[in-house]
Amino acid sequence: MPADLFPGFSSHWIDLPDGRFFARAGGPEDAPPLLMLHGFPQTHACWHRIAPALARTHRVVCLDLKGYGWSAAPRGDAAHAAYSKRRMGAEAVAVMDTFGHARFAVVGHDRGGRVGYRLALDEPGRVARLALLDILPTCIQWEQMAREPGLYPHWRFLAQAAPGPEEEIGRDPVAYYDELLRGWTRDGTLDAFAPGALELYRQAWNVPERIHATCEDYRAGAGPDRAADEADRASGRRIACPTLVLVADAFVGRRGLDPVREAWHGTFAPGAGVAAVASGHFLAEENPQGTLAALEEFLGA
Predict the structure, then answer these.
(1) Which residues form the AB hydrolase-1 domain (predicted)?
(2) 30 assigned to active site
(3) Homologous superfamily of 3-299
(4) I need a labelling partner for 22 at 20 to 30 A (CA). Which of 97, 132, 210, 261 fits?
(5) What is the pTM assigned to this prediction?
(6) Strand ranges (E), the chain
(7) Using 50, 70 and 90 to split pLDDT, how confident is the model at 4?
(8) Catalytic status, residue 110
(9) Is 157 exposed, middle or buried (0-12, 13-18, 19+ CB in 10 A)?
(10) Of 110, 178, 225, 232, which residue is the catalytic one?
(11) Other C-beta atoms within 10 Å of 36: how many?
């Protein structure tokens, strides 16, 4: 890890039933705790442009989710439960317990946001505040894709049965993931990513176990994650804590904020604030100033 990505942060290995998990922690130990969860196909390094600033007022923990970065990447199971957001949320709680934090704020981007809102639904006493970066609820996402089959094709591809996607990606994994990153940025290039962060992403992409893990993440999205969302929507379950949804105007928000607001207000977060950030999908790296300002205001920095 290049030393300058997270100045002043310490490195931690946490042993859990599914293996060892990696996290970086920074900020005053007595400050309000904040858990930051990255998305696909990245690692905790995606927060390097905003985490040090947030650590001025919070005890910040940046976790590599299971299967990503330097955290454990166990084989998936037949039901894809190992990579369900419910299981990954429970693992995030276990990690924060090791730091002594029973209740904490969560900022999650992409897949990390899905872990975050599932955790907030399953264990409302644990999450003090929740910020979700550039996602719709999983159940809504699948409904959109059913109406528009060409929307987000990687969701269907990665959710296909093993080992099809793994073998296809494995022929040239860096090229595959690089192309996804380019396609989701505002300018269609990799210029937004710091060389040190991009190097860490590429290291993980070249590991067959991690290619499998990312596919299992999406298989869980098509199976247990979607089922959990649908059950909670049917029962009227809602996120209890204050919630902010930040939307990239050049990605999820390219059709405006109204569809995003309707998706969250109509399902799990009727009181959520919804705000646009001038960015492609990778808000914390493409527009760290705008993202940081919104998060600091929401978190009470």
Answers:
(1) 32-288
(2) no
(3) Alpha/Beta hydrolase fold, catalytic domain (3.40.50.1820)
(4) 132
(5) 0.98
(6) 10-16, 19-26, 33-37, 59-63, 104-109, 127-133, 243-248, 273-277
(7) confident
(8) yes
(9) middle
(10) 110
(11) 27
